[in-house]
Amino acid sequence: MKMKQQTHNLWQQLRQRPLLYHLVLIVATLLVLAVAAHLLMLAGTRHGARRTVPDFAGMPLDEAQRVARKHDLRIQINDSLYVPAYDGGIVLDQLPEGGVEVKPGRTVYLTINSFQQRRVPVPYVAGRSLRQAKNMLEIAGLEIARLVYQDDMATNYVLAEFCEGREVRPGSHIETEAGNGVTLYVGVEGGYGTVMTPSVAGYTLRDAKSRIWESGLNVGRIEFDDEIDLLTQKEARVYLQTPGPERSVALGSHVDLRLTLDPKKTTEARTAAQKAAQAARQELEEQRARDEAVADSLARVRLEEALNGDPSADTEEAAAASRTVDAPRSQGRDGGAAASSRPATTASHRDNTLFRMPEQSSERNDRAASARDRAQEEETDEFFF
Questions:
Q1: Alpha-carbon distance 260 to 202, whole Å?
Q2: Residue 113 belongs to what H/E stretch?
Q3: Domains of the chain (ranges, CATH numbers)
Q4: Which end of the chain has the smaller Cβ count within 10 Å, N or C?
Q5: What distance in Å separates the CA atoms of residue 326 and residue 290, rounded to the nearest whole number?
Q6: What is the pLDDT of residues 94-123, one digit of tens each?
Q7: Three-state secondary structure string covering 335-385
Protein backbone atom coordinates (compact mmCIF):
# COMPACT_ATOMS: atom_id res chain seq x y z
CA MET A 1 0.00 0.00 0.00
CA LYS A 2 2.86 2.31 0.85
CA MET A 3 4.60 1.48 -2.43
CA LYS A 4 1.43 2.25 -4.33
CA GLN A 5 1.09 5.59 -2.57
CA GLN A 6 4.69 6.52 -3.44
CA THR A 7 4.16 5.64 -7.07
CA HIS A 8 1.02 7.75 -7.20
CA ASN A 9 2.83 10.71 -5.65
CA LEU A 10 5.67 10.39 -8.14
CA TRP A 11 3.23 10.31 -11.02
CA GLN A 12 1.49 13.44 -9.68
CA GLN A 13 4.82 15.23 -9.47
CA LEU A 14 5.59 14.29 -13.10
CA ARG A 15 2.22 15.63 -14.24
CA GLN A 16 3.05 18.92 -12.61
CA ARG A 17 6.10 19.14 -14.91
CA PRO A 18 4.72 18.86 -18.45
CA LEU A 19 8.08 18.66 -20.25
CA LEU A 20 9.41 15.82 -18.13
CA TYR A 21 6.03 14.08 -18.20
CA HIS A 22 5.83 14.02 -22.00
CA LEU A 23 9.46 12.93 -22.29
CA VAL A 24 8.75 9.90 -20.09
CA LEU A 25 5.68 9.08 -22.19
CA ILE A 26 7.73 9.17 -25.42
CA VAL A 27 10.42 6.88 -24.02
CA ALA A 28 7.84 4.43 -22.72
CA THR A 29 6.04 4.38 -26.06
CA LEU A 30 9.27 3.70 -27.95
CA LEU A 31 10.13 0.82 -25.64
CA VAL A 32 6.71 -0.73 -26.15
CA LEU A 33 7.01 -0.42 -29.95
CA ALA A 34 10.52 -1.94 -29.96
CA VAL A 35 9.41 -4.94 -27.91
CA ALA A 36 6.36 -5.45 -30.13
CA ALA A 37 8.46 -5.26 -33.34
CA HIS A 38 10.92 -7.78 -31.94
CA LEU A 39 8.17 -10.22 -31.06
CA LEU A 40 6.57 -9.84 -34.48
CA MET A 41 9.91 -10.39 -36.23
CA LEU A 42 10.53 -13.58 -34.28
CA ALA A 43 7.10 -14.84 -35.21
CA GLY A 44 7.43 -13.84 -38.89
CA THR A 45 10.92 -15.29 -39.46
CA ARG A 46 10.33 -18.37 -37.33
CA HIS A 47 13.49 -17.74 -35.40
CA GLY A 48 15.00 -20.97 -34.12
CA ALA A 49 12.96 -23.18 -36.47
CA ARG A 50 15.00 -25.35 -38.88
CA ARG A 51 14.21 -27.65 -41.77
CA THR A 52 16.61 -30.00 -43.56
CA VAL A 53 16.40 -29.69 -47.35
CA PRO A 54 15.77 -33.12 -48.91
CA ASP A 55 17.72 -34.34 -51.92
CA PHE A 56 15.36 -33.89 -54.88
CA ALA A 57 17.83 -35.08 -57.56
CA GLY A 58 16.38 -37.89 -59.64
CA MET A 59 12.80 -37.35 -58.41
CA PRO A 60 9.91 -36.66 -60.76
CA LEU A 61 8.56 -33.14 -60.39
CA ASP A 62 5.27 -34.27 -58.80
CA GLU A 63 7.05 -36.29 -56.13
CA ALA A 64 9.44 -33.41 -55.43
CA GLN A 65 6.45 -31.11 -54.79
CA ARG A 66 4.91 -33.57 -52.30
CA VAL A 67 8.19 -33.98 -50.42
CA ALA A 68 8.66 -30.21 -50.30
CA ARG A 69 5.21 -29.67 -48.75
CA LYS A 70 5.93 -32.35 -46.18
CA HIS A 71 9.06 -30.47 -45.07
CA ASP A 72 7.29 -27.10 -45.08
CA LEU A 73 9.31 -25.92 -48.09
CA ARG A 74 8.45 -24.43 -51.46
CA ILE A 75 9.98 -25.35 -54.82
CA GLN A 76 10.36 -23.30 -57.97
CA ILE A 77 11.62 -24.40 -61.42
CA ASN A 78 14.56 -22.17 -62.21
CA ASP A 79 15.95 -23.80 -65.38
CA SER A 80 15.61 -26.80 -67.67
CA LEU A 81 18.07 -28.87 -69.65
CA TYR A 82 17.69 -31.68 -72.14
CA VAL A 83 19.61 -34.81 -71.17
CA PRO A 84 18.55 -37.80 -73.29
CA ALA A 85 19.64 -40.23 -70.55
CA TYR A 86 16.84 -39.01 -68.22
CA ASP A 87 13.06 -38.92 -68.55
CA GLY A 88 11.30 -35.61 -68.95
CA GLY A 89 10.46 -33.79 -65.71
CA ILE A 90 13.21 -35.43 -63.66
CA VAL A 91 14.99 -33.08 -61.23
CA LEU A 92 18.63 -32.66 -62.31
CA ASP A 93 19.91 -30.09 -59.85
CA GLN A 94 18.76 -27.96 -56.92
CA LEU A 95 19.75 -24.93 -54.87
CA PRO A 96 20.24 -25.13 -51.90
CA GLU A 97 21.65 -28.64 -52.05
CA GLY A 98 20.21 -31.55 -50.14
CA GLY A 99 21.12 -31.80 -46.45
CA VAL A 100 21.37 -28.02 -45.86
CA GLU A 101 19.36 -26.61 -42.94
CA VAL A 102 17.05 -23.72 -43.79
CA LYS A 103 14.09 -21.94 -42.22
CA PRO A 104 10.56 -23.21 -42.85
CA GLY A 105 8.96 -21.80 -46.00
CA ARG A 106 12.28 -21.45 -47.82
CA THR A 107 12.14 -21.72 -51.63
CA VAL A 108 14.28 -24.43 -53.25
CA TYR A 109 15.15 -23.74 -56.91
CA LEU A 110 15.16 -26.77 -59.22
CA THR A 111 16.64 -27.57 -62.63
CA ILE A 112 14.58 -30.23 -64.41
CA ASN A 113 15.05 -32.27 -67.55
CA SER A 114 13.06 -31.04 -70.54
CA PHE A 115 10.58 -33.38 -72.15
CA GLN A 116 12.03 -32.67 -75.60
CA GLN A 117 14.84 -30.66 -77.09
CA ARG A 118 13.92 -27.39 -78.79
CA ARG A 119 14.18 -27.30 -82.55
CA VAL A 120 16.15 -24.64 -84.41
CA PRO A 121 16.42 -23.73 -88.10
CA VAL A 122 19.59 -24.87 -89.89
CA PRO A 123 21.39 -21.90 -91.46
CA TYR A 124 22.66 -22.18 -95.03
CA VAL A 125 26.47 -21.90 -94.84
CA ALA A 126 27.61 -23.30 -98.21
CA GLY A 127 29.67 -20.80 -100.17
CA ARG A 128 31.33 -19.38 -97.06
CA SER A 129 34.68 -19.92 -95.41
CA LEU A 130 34.99 -22.64 -92.81
CA ARG A 131 35.38 -20.10 -90.01
CA GLN A 132 32.25 -18.19 -91.04
CA ALA A 133 30.25 -21.41 -91.35
CA LYS A 134 31.37 -22.59 -87.92
CA ASN A 135 30.40 -19.30 -86.29
CA MET A 136 26.96 -19.29 -87.94
CA LEU A 137 26.25 -22.85 -86.81
CA GLU A 138 27.35 -22.14 -83.23
CA ILE A 139 25.15 -19.05 -83.05
CA ALA A 140 22.21 -21.18 -84.20
CA GLY A 141 22.91 -23.70 -81.41
CA LEU A 142 24.33 -26.40 -83.71
CA GLU A 143 27.66 -28.17 -84.10
CA ILE A 144 29.81 -29.60 -86.88
CA ALA A 145 29.28 -33.34 -87.07
CA ARG A 146 32.05 -33.98 -89.60
CA LEU A 147 34.32 -32.16 -92.02
CA VAL A 148 34.80 -33.92 -95.37
CA TYR A 149 37.54 -32.46 -97.58
CA GLN A 150 37.33 -32.62 -101.38
CA ASP A 151 39.59 -31.44 -104.18
CA ASP A 152 38.81 -27.81 -105.04
CA MET A 153 40.57 -24.64 -106.15
CA ALA A 154 40.06 -22.99 -102.73
CA THR A 155 41.05 -24.43 -99.37
CA ASN A 156 38.62 -24.31 -96.41
CA TYR A 157 35.74 -23.17 -98.61
CA VAL A 158 32.41 -24.86 -97.78
CA LEU A 159 31.11 -26.64 -100.89
CA ALA A 160 27.98 -28.37 -99.51
CA GLU A 161 26.08 -28.85 -96.26
CA PHE A 162 24.05 -31.84 -95.03
CA CYS A 163 21.84 -32.24 -91.95
CA GLU A 164 20.32 -35.60 -91.00
CA GLY A 165 21.05 -36.93 -94.49
CA ARG A 166 19.37 -34.01 -96.29
CA GLU A 167 21.28 -31.37 -98.23
CA VAL A 168 20.71 -27.87 -96.95
CA ARG A 169 19.94 -25.45 -99.78
CA PRO A 170 18.86 -21.81 -99.87
CA GLY A 171 15.24 -21.62 -98.77
CA SER A 172 15.05 -25.29 -97.68
CA HIS A 173 13.82 -24.33 -94.16
CA ILE A 174 15.21 -27.45 -92.48
CA GLU A 175 14.88 -27.66 -88.69
CA THR A 176 16.66 -29.94 -86.23
CA GLU A 177 17.12 -30.32 -82.50
CA ALA A 178 19.50 -27.87 -80.86
CA GLY A 179 22.94 -29.39 -80.34
CA ASN A 180 22.79 -31.64 -83.40
CA GLY A 181 25.68 -31.74 -85.85
CA VAL A 182 25.89 -30.69 -89.50
CA THR A 183 28.20 -32.34 -92.03
CA LEU A 184 30.22 -29.90 -94.15
CA TYR A 185 31.98 -30.72 -97.40
CA VAL A 186 35.00 -28.44 -97.62
CA GLY A 187 37.43 -27.80 -100.45
CA VAL A 188 41.21 -28.23 -100.36
CA GLU A 189 43.57 -27.22 -103.13
CA GLY A 190 45.26 -30.20 -104.72
CA GLY A 191 43.06 -32.66 -102.85
CA TYR A 192 45.40 -32.81 -99.85
CA GLY A 193 46.64 -30.38 -97.22
CA THR A 194 48.27 -30.39 -93.81
CA VAL A 195 47.75 -28.31 -90.70
CA MET A 196 49.26 -28.07 -87.22
CA THR A 197 47.08 -29.40 -84.41
CA PRO A 198 46.03 -26.60 -82.02
CA SER A 199 46.63 -26.76 -78.29
CA VAL A 200 43.29 -27.08 -76.44
CA ALA A 201 44.62 -27.92 -72.97
CA GLY A 202 42.61 -26.09 -70.30
CA TYR A 203 39.65 -25.44 -72.60
CA THR A 204 36.07 -26.50 -71.93
CA LEU A 205 34.64 -29.08 -74.31
CA ARG A 206 32.65 -26.46 -76.20
CA ASP A 207 35.64 -24.15 -76.71
CA ALA A 208 37.96 -27.05 -77.57
CA LYS A 209 35.56 -28.26 -80.27
CA SER A 210 35.30 -24.78 -81.72
CA ARG A 211 39.07 -24.40 -81.97
CA ILE A 212 39.54 -27.85 -83.51
CA TRP A 213 36.87 -27.22 -86.17
CA GLU A 214 38.35 -23.83 -86.97
CA SER A 215 41.69 -25.53 -87.69
CA GLY A 216 40.07 -27.81 -90.25
CA LEU A 217 40.07 -30.92 -88.05
CA ASN A 218 37.36 -33.24 -86.73
CA VAL A 219 36.59 -33.97 -83.09
CA GLY A 220 37.24 -37.65 -82.41
CA ARG A 221 36.60 -39.70 -79.28
CA ILE A 222 35.61 -37.72 -76.15
CA GLU A 223 36.26 -39.23 -72.72
CA PHE A 224 35.69 -37.94 -69.18
CA ASP A 225 37.31 -38.81 -65.88
CA ASP A 226 35.28 -41.10 -63.62
CA GLU A 227 34.14 -38.35 -61.23
CA ILE A 228 32.43 -36.38 -64.01
CA ASP A 229 28.68 -36.85 -64.49
CA LEU A 230 26.15 -35.38 -66.90
CA LEU A 231 25.66 -32.28 -64.75
CA THR A 232 29.36 -31.43 -64.35
CA GLN A 233 30.48 -32.00 -67.95
CA LYS A 234 30.18 -28.28 -68.70
CA GLU A 235 32.74 -27.51 -65.98
CA ALA A 236 35.28 -30.12 -67.15
CA ARG A 237 38.39 -29.03 -69.04
CA VAL A 238 40.68 -30.76 -71.54
CA TYR A 239 43.94 -32.13 -70.18
CA LEU A 240 44.83 -34.71 -72.84
CA GLN A 241 44.58 -34.62 -76.64
CA THR A 242 45.65 -37.07 -79.32
CA PRO A 243 47.49 -36.18 -81.54
CA GLY A 244 49.30 -33.75 -79.26
CA PRO A 245 49.66 -30.03 -79.94
CA GLU A 246 51.87 -28.70 -82.71
CA ARG A 247 51.74 -31.92 -84.75
CA SER A 248 51.47 -31.85 -88.53
CA VAL A 249 48.38 -33.80 -89.66
CA ALA A 250 46.18 -33.96 -92.73
CA LEU A 251 43.14 -31.70 -92.96
CA GLY A 252 40.06 -33.53 -91.72
CA SER A 253 41.99 -35.69 -89.25
CA HIS A 254 40.42 -36.53 -85.88
CA VAL A 255 41.57 -35.20 -82.51
CA ASP A 256 40.63 -37.26 -79.43
CA LEU A 257 40.01 -35.46 -76.13
CA ARG A 258 39.93 -36.37 -72.45
CA LEU A 259 38.53 -34.00 -69.82
CA THR A 260 38.85 -33.64 -66.05
CA LEU A 261 37.70 -31.54 -63.10
CA ASP A 262 41.14 -31.73 -61.48
CA PRO A 263 42.83 -28.30 -61.80
CA LYS A 264 46.24 -29.88 -61.22
CA LYS A 265 45.92 -32.01 -64.35
CA THR A 266 44.78 -28.98 -66.33
CA THR A 267 47.74 -26.89 -65.17
CA GLU A 268 50.22 -29.63 -66.05
CA ALA A 269 48.64 -30.03 -69.48
CA ARG A 270 48.87 -26.28 -70.20
CA THR A 271 52.52 -26.25 -69.14
CA ALA A 272 53.29 -29.16 -71.45
CA ALA A 273 51.48 -27.43 -74.32
CA GLN A 274 53.51 -24.26 -73.81
CA LYS A 275 56.72 -26.30 -73.86
CA ALA A 276 55.62 -27.97 -77.09
CA ALA A 277 54.94 -24.58 -78.68
CA GLN A 278 58.35 -23.32 -77.58
CA ALA A 279 60.02 -26.43 -78.99
CA ALA A 280 58.20 -25.91 -82.29
CA ARG A 281 59.42 -22.31 -82.49
CA GLN A 282 62.96 -23.43 -81.73
CA GLU A 283 62.77 -26.13 -84.39
CA LEU A 284 61.53 -23.52 -86.87
CA GLU A 285 64.51 -21.26 -86.15
CA GLU A 286 66.90 -24.19 -86.54
CA GLN A 287 65.29 -25.09 -89.86
CA ARG A 288 65.71 -21.53 -91.08
CA ALA A 289 69.37 -21.59 -90.07
CA ARG A 290 69.88 -24.85 -91.96
CA ASP A 291 68.17 -23.42 -95.04
CA GLU A 292 70.44 -20.36 -94.95
CA ALA A 293 73.49 -22.60 -94.62
CA VAL A 294 72.38 -24.68 -97.62
CA ALA A 295 71.77 -21.55 -99.67
CA ASP A 296 75.20 -20.19 -98.76
CA SER A 297 76.85 -23.47 -99.72
CA LEU A 298 75.05 -23.61 -103.06
CA ALA A 299 76.03 -20.03 -103.81
CA ARG A 300 79.70 -20.73 -103.16
CA VAL A 301 79.64 -23.83 -105.37
CA ARG A 302 78.01 -21.91 -108.21
CA LEU A 303 80.52 -19.10 -107.79
CA GLU A 304 83.42 -21.50 -108.06
CA GLU A 305 81.86 -23.12 -111.13
CA ALA A 306 81.34 -19.72 -112.72
CA LEU A 307 84.95 -18.66 -112.05
CA ASN A 308 86.43 -21.95 -113.23
CA GLY A 309 84.30 -21.98 -116.35
CA ASP A 310 85.29 -18.42 -117.35
CA PRO A 311 89.05 -17.84 -116.74
CA SER A 312 88.97 -14.54 -118.59
CA ALA A 313 86.65 -13.03 -115.94
CA ASP A 314 88.37 -9.95 -114.66
CA THR A 315 89.16 -9.26 -111.05
CA GLU A 316 86.35 -6.73 -110.64
CA GLU A 317 83.66 -9.21 -111.65
CA ALA A 318 85.04 -11.85 -109.28
CA ALA A 319 85.11 -9.34 -106.44
CA ALA A 320 81.51 -8.31 -107.16
CA ALA A 321 80.39 -11.95 -107.12
CA SER A 322 82.28 -12.53 -103.88
CA ARG A 323 80.52 -9.56 -102.28
CA THR A 324 77.21 -11.02 -103.44
CA VAL A 325 77.90 -14.33 -101.70
CA ASP A 326 78.96 -12.66 -98.46
CA ALA A 327 75.96 -10.30 -98.46
CA PRO A 328 73.51 -12.60 -96.56
CA ARG A 329 75.91 -12.84 -93.60
CA SER A 330 76.75 -9.18 -93.40
CA GLN A 331 73.19 -8.00 -93.91
CA GLY A 332 72.09 -9.03 -90.39
CA ARG A 333 75.06 -7.15 -88.83
CA ASP A 334 75.06 -4.09 -91.03
CA GLY A 335 71.28 -3.57 -91.04
CA GLY A 336 71.04 -3.69 -94.82
CA ALA A 337 73.60 -0.91 -95.47
CA ALA A 338 75.77 -3.19 -97.60
CA ALA A 339 72.77 -4.15 -99.70
CA SER A 340 72.01 -0.53 -100.51
CA SER A 341 75.62 0.17 -101.65
CA ARG A 342 75.97 -2.97 -103.77
CA PRO A 343 76.26 -2.37 -107.57
CA ALA A 344 73.15 -3.05 -109.64
CA THR A 345 75.04 -5.56 -111.81
CA THR A 346 75.95 -7.54 -108.69
CA ALA A 347 72.31 -7.72 -107.58
CA SER A 348 71.25 -8.80 -111.05
CA HIS A 349 73.95 -11.45 -111.16
CA ARG A 350 72.85 -12.73 -107.75
CA ASP A 351 69.17 -12.88 -108.72
CA ASN A 352 69.83 -14.66 -112.01
CA THR A 353 72.57 -17.19 -111.19
CA LEU A 354 73.47 -17.53 -107.53
CA PHE A 355 70.48 -17.48 -105.18
CA ARG A 356 67.89 -19.70 -106.74
CA MET A 357 66.54 -21.14 -103.50
CA PRO A 358 64.78 -24.53 -103.56
CA GLU A 359 61.07 -24.31 -102.88
CA GLN A 360 59.92 -25.09 -99.36
CA SER A 361 57.54 -28.01 -98.96
CA SER A 362 53.90 -27.22 -98.15
CA GLU A 363 54.28 -28.96 -94.80
CA ARG A 364 57.20 -26.71 -93.78
CA ASN A 365 55.23 -23.59 -94.75
CA ASP A 366 52.24 -24.78 -92.75
CA ARG A 367 54.49 -25.45 -89.79
CA ALA A 368 56.05 -22.00 -89.91
CA ALA A 369 52.72 -20.18 -90.16
CA SER A 370 51.14 -22.33 -87.49
CA ALA A 371 54.04 -21.87 -85.10
CA ARG A 372 53.67 -18.11 -85.30
CA ASP A 373 49.91 -18.38 -84.71
CA ARG A 374 50.39 -20.73 -81.78
CA ALA A 375 52.91 -18.38 -80.20
CA GLN A 376 50.45 -15.49 -80.37
CA GLU A 377 47.60 -17.64 -79.05
CA GLU A 378 49.70 -18.94 -76.15
CA GLU A 379 50.60 -15.37 -75.18
CA THR A 380 46.89 -14.45 -75.28
CA ASP A 381 45.94 -17.51 -73.23
CA GLU A 382 48.58 -16.68 -70.61
CA PHE A 383 47.13 -13.18 -70.31
CA PHE A 384 43.52 -14.34 -69.76
CA PHE A 385 44.22 -17.39 -67.64
A1: 9
A2: strand 107-113
A3: 51-113 (3.30.10.20), 119-265 (3.30.10.20)
A4: N
A5: 17
A6: 999 888 888 888 899 999 988 888 889 999
A7: CCHHHHHCCHHHHHHHHHHHCCCCCCCHHHHHHHHHHHHHHHHHHHHHHHC
